Amino acid sequence: MGTIWVVLIAILALIAGVALGFFIARKYMMNYLKKNPPINEQMLRTMMMQMGQKHRKRKLNK
């Protein structure tokens, strides 16, 4: 009977750890993306103009 409890507690701890890890990672990524938004087409055009390059549609889509 003791072995069953050990296995049951281990499984519950594993499930709780996975769930907690998921929510912590999700919160971290949400904060990261809020502070560092992904680069969009307008940002690329601005950066290319600052570097003195022509911003052709073909270059932006690479």
Protein model, in words:
By secondary structure, the protein is mainly alpha-helical. The protein has one domain (2-60). 77% of the residues lie in helices and 0% in strands. The chain is built from 3 helices and no strands. It is rod-shaped. It starts with a helix and ends with a helix.
Question: What's the N-to-C terminus distance?
Answer: 62 Å
Helix-strand sequence: HHH
Strand percentage? under 5%
H/I helix tally: 3
The shape is rod-shaped
Radius of gyration: 24 Å
Largest sheet: none
What helical percentage do the residues reach? over 70%
Q: Report the strand count.
A: 0
Category by helix and strand content: mainly alpha
Number of domains: 1
Poorly predicted runs of 5 or more residues = none
Average of the residue pLDDT scores = 88
Summary?
This protein has 62 residues and is an all-alpha fold.
Write the layout of secondary structure elements.
Elements: H1 2-35, H2 41-50, H3 57-60
Short descriptors:
62 residues, mainly alpha, 3 helices, 0% strand, membrane, transmembrane helix, transmembrane, UPF0154
